[in-house]
Specification:
The protein has 86 residues and is of the alpha+beta class. 56% of the residues lie in helices and 14% in strands. It is built from 3 helices and 2 strands, in the order ααββα. A two-stranded antiparallel ribbon has the order 1-2. It comes from Gopherus evgoodei.
């Protein structure tokens, strides 16, 4: 993935509240996903693969075969929705 694409995923400059919210969503998804992946909490099939430059990042996703991953994704989506309301 090119450096310009990384800048789109994690921009260097945040100018608006909306851009800030998008960055927080992405950082939360990466953080939760990395922790659960490295601890082996969910099976491999519960993760999608994204690339940032040469770095492979596993992102937790909803998977009908893994209700725990679906529940965790729902929780952090709901958490972000709650933050928006504050």
């Amino acid at each position: 993935m090119a450096t310009a694409q990384i800048a789109v995923i994690f921009p260097n400059k945040i100018c608006t509240e909306q851009q800030s919210l998008i960055l927080v969503k992405r950082l939360l998804a990466v953080a939760v996903s990395c922790i659960t992946y490295l601890r082996g909490i969910f099976p491999e099939c519960a993760y999608g693969t994204r690339y940032l430059d040469d770095l492979c990042v596993k992102i937790l996703r909803e998977d009908k075969n893994c209700p725990g991953s679906t529940q965790l994704v729902k929780w952090y989506v709901d958490f972000i929705a709650f933050i928006i309301l504050l």
